[in-house]
Design a protein that fits this description.
This protein has 158 residues and is mainly β. It has a single domain (2-157), classed as Porin, CATH 2.40.160.20. The chain has two helices and eight strands; from the N terminus they run ααββββββββ. It has helices at residues 2-14, 20-23, and strands at residues 30-38, 42-56, 59-72, 79-92, 97-108, 121-132, 138-146, 149-157. An eight-stranded antiparallel barrel has the order 1-2-3-4-5-6-7-8. The model is unreliable at 20-26 (pLDDT under 50).
């Protein structure tokens, strides 16, 4: 039920990029970013694809999805596996320097069948700094803090 709700929200929020009047004003930008974050008992890493769906003045709304891994270390047992994050990035700023807020969900696959007692959903909540050229192309650098800990990411926009 939660996954169906998330999918419906993603479809509704992305409809503005598909409207007739926005096709001429928005030039969609794509990017690939490798990032990772860690805290004392929790961490994640992944390769993400981003698509700009709203671009107005100094504000961008980006839809992000990817594939990676995660771990959780509550003592005495360790949980880990692959994950698929889906989130919205709100980016505000002018020039090369931007504030970034990332909100979404990470669906996790457990590496052991005995780990099925835990919820497969983890929140994606990050706040941080993003370096990206105003034309939306070239190098992307991000540094953030959030639910998964302190992290960095590097990527390429095209």
């Amino acid at each position: 039920m939660k996954l169906a709700s998330i999918i419906v929200l993603l479809i509704v929020f992305s409809m503005e990029a598909n409207c007739q009047e926005t096709i001429n004003t928005i030039k969609p930008k794509n990017s690939i970013i490798a990032d990772g974050a860690t805290a004392v008992y929790l961490g994640m890493f992944g390769l993400n694809y981003e698509r700009t769906i709203v671009l107005k003045d100094h504000i961008r709304l980006i839809l992000t999805t990817g594939f990676g891994g995660w771990y959780l270390l509550p003592l005495p047992k360790q949980y880990s596996g692959f994950s698929i994050p889906m989130s919205f990035n709100f980016i505000e700023g002018s020039g090369n320097n931007h504030f970034e807020a990332d909100l979404g969900v990470r669906y996790t696959f457990y590496s052991k069948k005995s780990d099925k007692d835990r919820s497969p959903y983890f929140p994606v909540i990050n706040f941080g700094y993003r370096y990206q050229r105003p034309d939306g192309k070239g190098l992307i650098f991000r540094a953030f803090i959030g639910y998964s800990g302190i992290g960095i990411g590097v990527g390429k926009a095209f």
